Amino acid sequence: MKATMKDVATLANVSMSTVSRVLNNPETVVPEKRERVLAAIKTLKYHPNALARGLIYKRTRTYGVLIPDVSNMYSAEVLKGMEEAANVRGMNLIICNTDLNKDRKHAYINVLNEKQVDGILYMSEAVFPDDYKVMERLAIPFVLASTHCLEYPLPSVKVDDEQGGYDATLFLVSKGHKEIGMISGPTTDIIAGQSRLQGYMRCLRDHHLPVNVDKNVQFGHYRFQDGFEAMERLYQSNNITAVFCASDEMALGAISYLHSIKVDVPNDLSVIGYDNTKVASMSIPPLTTVAQPMYEIGYKAVEKLEDLINGNELKQLRTYLPHQIIERKSVKEI
User: Fold this and answer.
1) Whole domain around residue 262: which residue ranges?
2) Is the peptide bond before 129 cis (omega within 30 degrees of 0)?
3) In terms of domains, do 149 and 75 share one?
4) What is the pTM of this model?
C-alpha cells in the first residue's frame, strides 16, 4: 500500500504540518525533526503527490508551454532556456505542440487549466482576439516568448525583428552589395514575417537602393525546402549579388540550391541567415547570420512568469533583448 503523509508523520513522531514544511520549506524545521522526517520518507519510500500539494499551497510547481513546432531548431534552443530556468526553481514543464492549429492550441490551454498549471509560456505565435478571450477567462498568468502583442497587456520577451531585418540588410550593404534579394517568412506571420521584411525594405530605402518586392523577394515558411524552392525562383528572375534569408534553415536551403547549379557561396552570391541556430556554424560555408539570444529569451520568459505568479511588479511589460551579427564565411565583400 502506498505510504501517505500521515504515515510519515506517525513514524517520525511529528505533526503532518511539520512533514509538509520539511517538503516545502525545510529551512524552517529544526535539524533534529527534519532528519527524522527525511529518514521516515526514505524508509516508507514516500512520494508526495504534486497535485495534492498544489491544492494546499496553491501551486502545482508546473508551467505549461505552447510551442507551434516542437521539432524546430529555434524552438529547441528557447525551450532549453525555459527548462533551465524552471529547473533551478524546482518547477516542471508540460510541453504542448500546437502545430499552428488554433483549435488544438485552445484545447491545450483548457487542458493546462484543468491540470492547474501555475502559468503558461506562449511561444512564437501571434495573439489574436479569440486567443486573448480564452486567456482572459482563465485565472492563469501568461507570458509570451519570441512573440509579442501590442493590442493586449501581455508580458513578452523577444528581439526587435524589424531592426534585425534592417541590420542583416545593412551588413550586406556595408559589404558593397546593391542588388539584394530576400527570402522572407509569410506576410501572414505578423511577428517575424512582416517585421523582418519591413526591416529589409527600410534599410534599402535609407540607402537609396531599389525596393522591388515583386522581383526581389520570395516567401516561405522558414524551412529548408522553402529556402531551396524560393532561391530557385529568386535566382532565375534577377541578377542579385546577395540574399537575406529570414531563418537559418531557409538560408541552408538556399545554399543547397545554389550548390546544385554550381553557384559558389559567397564568391558568386552572398547569403545571410537569421537566428544563429547550431546548424549555422555547421553549414558549408559557415553561415553569417543574425543571432537571437534564444536561450536567454526562454530563461527570461520564465523569470517574468514567476514574477507574475508571485505578484511582483514587472519592470517592463515588453522586453526586447539585443541581437547581433555573427560573421562567418557566407558573405563576400565586393
Assistant:
1) 161-291
2) no
3) yes
4) 0.83
